[in-house]
Amino acid sequence: MKQFLDACLKANLQISKYLDNICESDLEFSPELGYDNNQSYKLDLKCEEIFIEHLSSLGQIFSEESGLIGENSPYKIILDPLDGSSNFVSKIPFYGTSAALFKDEKAQSTFICNLANYEILAFDGHKSLKSNLLNPCYSPFLPHPFSQVGVVEKITLCPSLINYLAQNKLKFRSLGATALSIAYASYFSFVLVLGKTRIFDTAGALMLCKDLHIENNENFLLISKDKQTFDIILEFFK
Asked: Left, alpha or beta for 201 (phi > 0: left; psi -120 to 50: alpha)?
């Protein structure tokens, strides 16, 4: 696990420097459609290249931008090279990276970095950890006990939910970087992602949510550390 976490750290340091000095042309969309017909920014592909350089020796990569990369291996790395890239392009300070390591489809480790504030959230195979990209000293990643606000991603898929949450006095924000939002679930009152989630958003982030209440199906993903809040929101979908 240490080799994977160290490689992710080096990749994120390089990506952070690249984004700090990015040229305007990389803020444009790539002319070619990527994996699953998604349109990527040029900067997404540059970040992917950096990850490939650092992670390809550790297993086959499955990237949101290009799909499968490398030879088949019992070790697979699920990668979102830049989560919230539209936020970055729009100068909204909530974006980062997500890399998750699996062996024979079993979760091994994850490394998620909020590049806007340099915070690292990681799972080493045993416990959840946090650190800082510029001062990588790991400590336990613990829930925030004073959460007052939740996160809802893709709220436009269910506008009627807005009134329901307001009636139940549940405040929320939409942050626009799904993997990061899920990874931070223990900090927030709740996280709700509407619609079918993608493996690139959930593979690593859910490793950090093992002790939380979770409902994950084809229509939504709901996470909360508070059972009462969890049940109130779940009732809306029944």
From this structure: alpha
pLDDT in tens, 52-66: 999 999 999 999 999
Domain identity same for 76 and 158: no
Q: Which of 140, 166, 185 is the last residue before a domain boundary?
A: 140
User: How far is 41 from 29, CA to CA, in rounded Å?
Assistant: 4
3-class secondary-structure state, position 148: coil
Task: Say how far apart CA 174 and CA 155 lie, in whole Å.
Answer: 8
- Residues at the binding site are 64, 80, 82-83
* Closest C-alpha among 178, 181, 176, 120 to residue 150: 181
Query: Tokens at residue 230, please?
Result: 């969890």
Which residue ranges are tagged as binding site for Mg(2+)? Answer: 64, 80, 82-83
